[in-house]
Design goal:
The protein has a two-stranded antiparallel ribbon with strand order 1-2. Helix 2 runs antiparallel to helix 6 and helix 3 crosses helix 6. By secondary structure, it is mainly α. Strand 1 and strand 2 form a beta hairpin.
Amino acid sequence: MTPIRSLLTAPVLLLAALCFTTAHAADTTPTAQLQHWSAQAGAPGNAAKGQSFFNAKHGGEWSCASCHGTPPTTQGKHANTGKVIGPLAPAFNPKAFTDTAKVDKWFKRNCNDVLSRACSAAEKADVLAYLNSLQ
């Protein structure tokens, strides 16, 4: 490859990498996540049940609200580490629930922290219905 062609190829490769990274980082939407978990549950998410679930301690010392706040429309803070957490409600955080890998990771981690088990598809759908309802 000639030096000139190499110089022209580099920006094209960089642009392609940036496009791929951007597309990957926002590969879903909060609505699509709600639809996915509702389909997995076999029933639509219920915002009232989601709100109740979000605020309940489920026999442990933490609820979802312990870190994310009530309602989760402003910054929260991790109850143990003190780390700042962005608003969870999608209307207040445009990045919320837009990366499938992160959604899966945080549901797994947070459900285990709050419930000492994985959340069911219905629980995820209900919580997402609640979070998507916040305006």
